[in-house]
Design a protein that fits this description.
Blueprint: E1 2-3, E2 7-9, E3 16-18, E4 24-27, E5 38-41, E6 44-47, H1 59-77, E7 83-86, H2 91-104, E8 109-113, H3 121-134, E9 137-140, H4 144-155, E10 158-159, E11 162-163, H5 168-191, E12 194-195, H6 201-206, H7 227-241, H8 249-253, H9 275-286, H10 292-301, H11 304-308, H12 314-318, H13 322-335, H14 339-346, E13 350-352, H15 373-385
C-alpha cells in the first residue's frame, strides 16, 4: 500500500496479458505474489498456469480484496493488533466488524453496543447476534446517564445572565461524541489497540457525521464506499469469505437510521439521505465532477436516472413536485462545501478504492459551495414556464 497520511492506496498487481483483439488472455490474482507464464504461437496466447484467470473479478470481490488488503496492511504498519468498533445493529458497523474480525481474528476484536433511549430492541438484539456469530468480544455500555450528566453540567453554566441549554439537535451530537470520544477511545486504550470509524462515502460527502463523534477513529475502512457498495461488501463477506451468514439478514433489510432522536427509527428511517438516489447523485458530484447544472439538464430531458445510474422511475417517486427536486439538489450541493470539508479534513485515513476519493485524491479548500448562474437561470425559466 501507499500511505500518504490521508489515503491508503492499494496496488492490486493483477498483471494481465491481452490478445490482439483486446480480450484478456490471462490475469494474475489480485493482491498476491506470483510468477505466471503465457505461450505465444500461431494458435494465439495461452496461459501455462492453470490458475491464471481470463476474467476480471466481480465487483464484490474487487471491493473486498482492496478494502481487506488495505486495512490489513495499514494495521500492520501502525502495529495495531486489537480493534474496538461500535456496533449499532446497522449495516456499516456490521460490515466493519465482520471485516476486522476476518483480518485480525475474533479474539482481537471488541464490539461495543452503546444504546440510548432512542435505540430499538431490534438493533440492540441484532448487534448482539452479530457479535455472537463472529465470536468477537462484546459489551453493552448504555449512554443515557452520561448524556444526561453532560446536559445538566452544561445547564449549570451561566452566560450573560442565563443558563446554557443544549438543543435537541445538540444532544444528538452529544450522544455521538459520548460513544466515540469517551467510550470507544477509552476501551481501545484499555484493550491495547485502536478504534474504528465506520463512516461511508455518502456520509462523508454530505457531512452527515459528528466532529469527534462518529467521524473519529484511527481508520475509515468503508470511507470510500457508497452505501450500496457497503451492502455489496456485506453480502460478499457472508457468501464468499465466511461462507455462512455471519451478518444477519435482518441487518440488510432494516431501514438505515442513526437512532439519535424520537423521529429516527429503524421502521421509518428519519435520516436525510435516501441512499438509492443520493449515492448516485453524490457520485456524480464527487467522482464525475458534475455540478447542479448538468443534473438539472438531465432531469429536464428525463435522462437523469440513466446518466447517474440509479433506479429508473425513482426520481419522480421521490420528488413528485418539481420544486422539491430542486430544493433537494441545492441542499446537497451546498452541503458539499464549507463545514463538510472541515469534517473530511479531520476525518481518519480512508482505504481508497475509487478514482476520486476524499483526501489527497480530491483536494479541497474550506470555502462554501455556490450555485452556478446558468443553473439558477435554467431553474427560473423552467419553473416559470410550467412546462
Amino acid at each position: 500500500i501507499q500511505n500518504n497520511g490521508k489515503n491508503i492506496y492499494t496496488y492490486d498487481g493483477a498483471s494481465r496479458v491481452f490478445s490482439p483483439s483486446g480480450d484478456i488472455a490471462a490475469s494474475c490474482p489480485s493482491f498476491a505474489d506470483g510468477l505466471f507464464f503465457c505461450r505465444y504461437d500461431e494458435n494465439g496466447i495461452s496461459p501455462e498456469n492453470t490458475d491464471a484467470s481470463r476474467q476480471p473479478p466481480e465487483m464484490g470481490r474487487e471491493i473486498y480484496d482492496a478494502v481487506a488488503y488495505g486495512t490489513k496492511k495499514f494495521l500492520a504498519q501502525c502495529q495495531i493488533e486489537n480493534i474496538v468498533a461500535g456496533l449499532s445493529g446497522g449495516i456499516d458497523s456490521a460490515v466493519a466488524a465482520a471485516l476486522y474480525t476476518h483480518i485480525l481474528g475474533s479474539k482481537q476484536v471488541l464490539l461495543i453496543n452503546m444504546p440510548s433511549r432512542y435505540n430499538s430492541a431490534i438493533t440492540i438484539n441484532l448487534a448482539r447476534q452479530l457479535a455472537e456469530n463472529l465470536g468477537a468480544h462484546y459489551a453493552s455500555v448504555p449512554i443515557g446517564g452520561s448524556v444526561e450528566l453532560t446536559a445538566r453540567q452544561i445547564g449549570s453554566i451561566r452566560v450573560n445572565g442565563r443558563h446554557l441549554a443544549l438543543s435537541d439537535f445538540a444532544l444528538e451530537n452529544v450522544q455521538a461524541r459520548d460513544r466515540s470520544s469517551r467510550i470507544l477511545a477509552a476501551a481501545a486504550a484499555a484493550f491495547g489497540g485502536g478504534f474504528s470509524c465506520n463512516a461511508n462515502k455518502s456520509e462523508l460527502t454530505a457531512g452527515y457525521g459528528t466532529f469527534y463523534g462518529d467521524l473519529a477513529g484511527m481508520l475509515a475502512p468503508l470511507g470510500d464506499l457508497w452505501k450500496y457498495q457497503v451492502y455489496m461488501l456485506g453480502r460478499y463477506l457472508n457468501t464468499d469469505v465466511f461462507k455462512t451468514p455471519k451478518i444477519p439478514e435482518a441487518i440488510f433489510e432494516i431501514t438505515p437510521s442513526a437512532e439519535l432522536s424520537a423521529v429516527q427509527t429503524v421502521g421509518t428511517g428519519g435520516d436525510p439521505i435516501h441512499y438509492p438516489y443520493h449515492d448516485y447523485l453524490f457520485g456524480a458530484f464527487v467522482e464525475k465532477n458534475l455540478s447542479p447544472l448538468e443534473i438539472a439538464l438531465w432531469y429536464k430531458k428525463g435522462t437523469l436516472e440513466e446518466n447517474i445510474g440509479c433506479e429508473k422511475g425513482l426520481v419522480n417517486r421521490l420528488f413528485p413536485v418539481r420544486e422539491d427536486f430542486f430544493a433537494d439538489l441545492e441542499h446537497w450541493w451546498l452541503a458539499l462545501g464549507g463545514l463538510s470539508i472541515a469534517k473530511r479534513i479531520q476525518a481518519p485515513p480512508i482505504v481508497t478504492v475509487s478514482e476520486r476519493a476524499f483526501g489527497f485524491e480530491r483536494r479541497e479548500t474550506q470555502i462554501p459551495a455556490a450555485l452556478p448562474a446558468k443553473y439558477l437561470l435554467l431553474k427560473r425559466e423552467w419553473l416559470s414556464s410550467g412546462d
